[in-house]
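Something for you to look into today, if you have time. What I am after is a single protein written out in full by you. I want to see for myself how the chain folds. Could you add the entry underneath, on a fresh line?
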Amino acid sequence: MRILFRCYNCEVINEIPDNYRHRFCNNCSKIITYTSREAIICEKSSHDCDVFLKAENLNADLAEKFFSIADSHTELISNLIKSYVQKQVELPDIPSASLSDTILRLIKGNVSGALDDLIKSCDLFNIGLNKLEKILLQMIKEGLIYLPKSWLLSLT
């Protein structure tokens, strides 16, 4: 199964594996979360899926097709989103002085390396998505972390 969704910032179509909810946009590098109204589920070998991904920005005809499919997939996507929200996250014991240090320690403790897990951990420390995004992009520029895939983080 493949999940396609539109970046709310630049409107480029992105793909994400079915067991993740967040990723960095391929185009604008914003952390994006798919929503039930702007995501579709495709079979792995779906021709439509490839057409949407190649188009990146949808013209009027493709946009109409994409959103008509998204409307029919609302319940499926909503169920996937609910299952991600219900996953439990343990509160790690992290003594640190700065926000960057806290995030770096959370990344070190994130065994899966998934952006989803990091975001859930940051929520426990009241670190918003905008702050997290800025700090992660700075860490990438400094070479502290890298993205093997748009939904995974690794230390260098």
Q: What stands out?
A: Strands lie at 2-6, 13-17, 22-24, 31-33, 39-42, 145-149, 152-155. The radius of gyration is 16 Å. The chain has six helices and seven strands.
